[in-house]
Write a structure and sequence with these properties.
This protein has a domain of 125 residues. It is 35% helix and 17% strand. It has a five-stranded mixed sheet with strand order 3-2-1-6-7, covered by helices on one side. Strands 4-5 form a two-stranded antiparallel sheet. A hairpin with a 3-residue loop joins strand 4 and strand 5.
Length: 190
Amino acid sequence: MAKRKTPGINTGSMADISFLLLTFFLLTSSINTEQGIPRRLPPPSEEKTKVDINKRNVFSVTVNFNDEIFAGGEIIPLNQLTNRAKEFLENPLNASHLPEKEIKLIENMGEYPISKGVLSLTNDQSTSYNMYVQVQNELQRAVNELRDKVSVQYFGRVYEKLDTSLQKSIQKAVPMNISEAPPNTYGKTE
């Protein structure tokens, strides 16, 4: 007796089905994309230009290799950074050691005293990424809270609830002036 051959399975249609399922899942699933930290970068320039900023207009924040935060000449806890940055930028009493203000005409708001303050952040190369992000968040929160305060004062709503043209007015009144210096290399030789 001759052996019977077992019929083979046609896998061509299975490959087609697998490809269609893969395509379906790729098209219908959303891929979580990470967003960066919003910062305004200077325009590209072939020549380096030096910008003179009055020392009173700079709020220096330094994070060292132990993740300690130095601001205003002293070590402060992370939970105080937002309030310190807000006090600095707002300067409600126009104190001489806090940033200058420049009165400008802003659409939808009229004349408004804009702070010339800059939040300057410097890290050590050994600063943990977690602390770096937390400090960035606190500085961002300070600006966002000031924007909300001005927005409620002028338009009766928080910044996020405003239409685009009013948001642009608030952005001009409370600019996002956060500067980041290259990391320090304390104790390292090159």
